[in-house]
Amino acid sequence: MDLTLRLATVLLTASLLLALQPAQAQLAGHGGPVRAIAVSVDGKTVLSGSFDTAAIRWSLATESAEQVLRFHSGAVNAVAFLGDGRMATAGADGQIAIWVPGRPQPDRVLEGHAGPIAGLAVSPDASKLASASWDHTVRISSLIDGGTRVLQGHSQNVNGVAFAPDGKSLVSVGYDLTVRIWRPPDGSAEVVTVPSPLNAVAISPDGEIVTGAADGKLRMLSADGKGNGEVMASATPIVALAISHDGALIAAAAIDGTVTIVDRKTRSVVRTLAALGMPVWSVAFLPDGATLLTGNADGKIRRWNALTGEAIGSNVLGAPADPLAAYAGDHGAEIFRACVACHTLSETEVQRAGPTLAGLFGRRIASLPGYRFSDALRAMDIVWTPETVSKLFEIGPNAYTPGTKMPEQHIGSAEDRRALTDFLARATSK
């Protein structure tokens, strides 16, 4: 499994902060890593998607959330503005939701992918939406008549997709080491093979293709797939790319938390933004060509001056509070520490990727109001008790609750399982 994918799984954490307050040059509200960022054409609005299963529409003027979009049952991996005020979000559930600002539910849901969606791209005329999926396909959906075309050819996960500036071709990249330049009218593709799995793609205003790979390199290709050079941007995998609106700068985010700024014309690294000590999962330029947004593993979106490398406002990282500090020395709490990334213990804490465990014992599985459970879980007849929770970890979630999104994990020791359930009985009944 690719390093990027492994780390993505580890980082499936989050809680969504509903009481969002302006923060100095930060957009702070997601409870998990910010996987995707899109900027409106006028540069006034930002759309972000997170591992916390939510998307947020932000006002840059007030640095506050205008709308929280809740629909997806998994991480929101890709977001896009559609050119007419509408928005698109897509994620690990394989669905694409089309939103109208201010409405609490999607206007339309596009289905068909059989695996997580990793990338979205809107055609220059805003008539088509392309999606890249881990089901090894690219789909082109008409935003006018609802028609869909499936492009097949990749043999592994497709991680990125981008339209050429003239809209006549579409580029996709994947783990199968290939760049595919599709000509939608006849469905043919020019295939370019590179030495490393590809995680991201972006296309400059003049049509040059830039790819980001697991070996830390940026590779440039002409519009017809001819090699145009490469730049070593990081010692770790590149996971996100952005090109400034004037095409002068490339921002490459790496899994180690560094963001490299590359001069596209000279093929040289001009600066590296201060490492944040955590993965940076997404990057996007504002229309001014100088301001860069980064989506970070701590759930915050930060602003940077890409021309100087300086942080805009306060980008200082604070030490996160330990949610289990009050239970120091409790053996059951230490076992629960592996669960705290996804579950809260009380209703007063903000929602994370999984349902709160407040009032857990005595509650029927998949019955908590306000959380999107899978159909498989809703059909089960399990009531959570110390015995059923112990059984869950004795045989594993995949066997005990098939259809769960919960990562597979086992607690082999009966003593440890008892310590966990004793802890949950105390901590979730308050």
UniProtKB/TrEMBL annotation:
SUPFAM superfamilies for the chain: Cytochrome c, WD40 repeat-like
GO MF annotation: an example: heme binding
WD repeats mapped onto the chain: 27-68, 69-99, 110-140, 151-182, 273-314
Keyword Signal attached: yes
Domain Cytochrome c per the UniProt entry, residue ranges: 327-428
UniProt entry tagged with the keyword tRNA processing: no
Keywords: Electron transport, Heme, Iron, Metal-binding, Signal, Transport, WD repeat
Signal peptide segment: 1-25
InterPro entries the record matches: Cyt_c-like_dom (IPR009056), Cyt_c-like_dom_sf (IPR036909), Cyt_c_1A/1B (IPR002327), WD40/YVTN_repeat-like_dom_sf (IPR015943), WD40_repeat_dom_sf (IPR036322), WD40_rpt (IPR001680)
Gene3D superfamilies tied to this protein: Cytochrome c-like domain, YVTN repeat-like/Quinoprotein amine dehydrogenase
PANTHER family, A to Z: TRANSCRIPTION INITIATION FACTOR TFIID (PTHR19879), TRANSCRIPTION INITIATION FACTOR TFIID SUBUNIT 5 (PTHR19879:SF9)
Protein name, entry field: Cytochrome c domain-containing protein
Naturally occurring in which organism (per UniProt): Bradyrhizobium neotropicale
Lineage: Bacteria, Pseudomonadati, Pseudomonadota, Alphaproteobacteria, Hyphomicrobiales
